[in-house]
Amino acid sequence: MTQNSVSSRFATLTFERDIAAPVSALWQAWTAPAARMIWAAPTPAVTVAFLEADSRVGGREVSLCKVKGQPDIRCEVGWLEFQPGLRSVNYEVVSCEGMAQSAALVTADLSGTDQRSRLVVTVQLSSLAENMEAGYRQGFGAGLDNLAGVAERTMVLERVIKAPRSLVWGAWMNSETLPQWWGPDGYSCRTARIDLRGGGEWVFDMIGPDGTVYPNHHRYGEVVPEERLGYTLHAGENGPKHADAWALFEDQGGATKVTLGMVFNTAAEFQAAKGFGAVELGLQTLGKLEAFVVSR
């Protein structure tokens, strides 16, 4: 084997992005399965189908990249290290028609403030097929450009609730109790239909303190008991989607950290939501969840 052939098989690639979003939003956009599904496709010509998505140490993500007229590309990601808001490490194996094309170790380092953040991704690539380095440079670069846009319209709300995870999850994923606490202070819910399983939906009105009615429709996707759920938010029954959302539930020594993330469809919708106080109202909703659980 010649020196040139050896060097063409191995490469270290570095990608850097400065992003106008808090590092907490960038971390969620980088790791949360619901967000990764949004930015993973490098171009509109590529469709990405997720077969598995478990973003935690020891978890695995399997996806298929589909391009019309070409064989599917399979990508398997295995998460090796998580330091929330700071670093992740994963392996990545790309294959086509059952043949491995490349293997890589991907390290992401994050830094920043509650205003701006920086992402540095290092890919240690071993190519088993030709042109994998060029493909990685193009595909990874385009994907990270998409990621930056997603992070800049991602809203993240967090609260540590002094109750076991089983109780918090039970209050959220129970069709009788969810409507009792959902919504900001002074708001109530009027349910038309509710089915909180994967593939289910919740059609309901939120009623404000002044009697104003806000139609809502949540469509549920992934539901992993006591760990996470994903859903989409629509303006009224079968109305236009305005956000992809997820909730994470982490045990913290008998307490539960709840993270609620939302990627709005557009930057304008994100700014509008911030403008009418969505962060403050969302935190009130998590406060009502805690009050409900603690009082049980």
The gist of it:
This protein is α+β, with helices and mostly antiparallel strands. It is about 30% helix and about 45% strand. Strand 3 and strand 4 form a beta hairpin.
Textual characterization of the structure:
The chain has 296 residues and is of the alpha+beta class. It has two domains: 3-152, START domain (Alpha-D-Glucose-1,6-Bisphosphate, Chain A, domain 4); 155-295, 2-Layer Sandwich (Alpha-D-Glucose-1,6-Bisphosphate, Chain A, domain 4), CATH 3.30.530. Helices cover 28% and strands 45% of the residues. The chain has helices at residues 3-9, 23-31, 33-39, 132-151, 165-172, 178-181, 267-275, 278-295; strands at residues 10-19, 47-53, 60-66, 73-83, 87-96, 99-112, 117-127, 154-161, 188-194, 201-207, 213-224, 228-234, 241-252, 255-264. The strands form two sheets. The chain has a seven-stranded antiparallel sheet. Strands 8-14-13-12-11-10-9 form a seven-stranded antiparallel sheet, sandwiched between helices. β13 and β14 (255-264) form a beta hairpin. The longest helix is centred in the middle third of the chain and has 20 residues, at 132-151. The protein starts with a helix and ends with a helix. The model is unreliable at 1-6 (pLDDT under 50).
Distance between the termini: 69 Å
Q: Return the CATH class of the largest domain.
A: Alpha Beta
Number of strands: 14
CATH architecture of the largest domain: 2-Layer Sandwich
Q: Domains counted in the coordinates: how many?
A: 2
**How does the major sheet shape up?**
7 strands, antiparallel
What is the CATH homologous superfamily assignment of the largest domain? START domain
**What name does the CATH topology of the largest domain carry?**
Alpha-D-Glucose-1,6-Bisphosphate, Chain A, domain 4
Topology as H/E string?
HEHHEEEEEEHEHHEEEEEEHH
Average pLDDT for all residues = 94
Q: What is the tally of helical segments?
A: 8
SS strand fraction = 35-45%
* Spatial order of strands in the largest sheet: 1-7-6-5-4-3-2
Question: From the helix content, strand content and strand pairing, which structural class follows?
Answer: alpha+beta
What share of residues is helical? 25-40%
Stretches where pLDDT is under 50 for at least 5 consecutive residues are 1-6
Radius of gyration (CA) equals 21 Å
Task: Using the alpha-carbon principal axes, give the shape.
Answer: elongated
